[in-house]
Amino acid sequence: MVDPLDPGTISLPLTFKRSRGRPRKLDALSPAERARRYRARKKAMSLHVVPASAYAQALRERDEARAQLDQLRRDLEQLKGQLLH
């Protein structure tokens, strides 16, 4: 604060310099909590693994459906040809 009676005093800055680095979050997790959540995510991801037999069956069904679709498209083209002639 400046003394009005003393001409030699100067005003001091009242701002505080921030510390280095990123500011801390108020709701930051503890290392133990972060590790617990990480393990839970890893466990959940391992539950999404599809067995090889189920994957192979899905591929077979997809290939059969594509073959059936191709056959139906050929039949449609044949019927269109018959209809136009």
Q: What is the ordering of alpha helices and beta strands?
A: HH
- Rg of Cα set: 37 Å
Approximate helicity band: 55-70%
Unreliable segments of 5+ consecutive residues: none
Protein described:
The structure is a single chain. It is built from two helices and no strands. It is mainly alpha-helical. The termini are far apart. The relative contact order is 0.05. The model has no long low-confidence stretch (mean pLDDT 88).
List descriptors.
85 residues; mainly alpha; 2 helices
Give a quick rundown of the structure.
The protein has 85 residues and is mainly α. Helices cover 59% and strands 0% of the residues.
Question: Topology, please?
Answer:
Layout: H1 31-47, H2 52-84
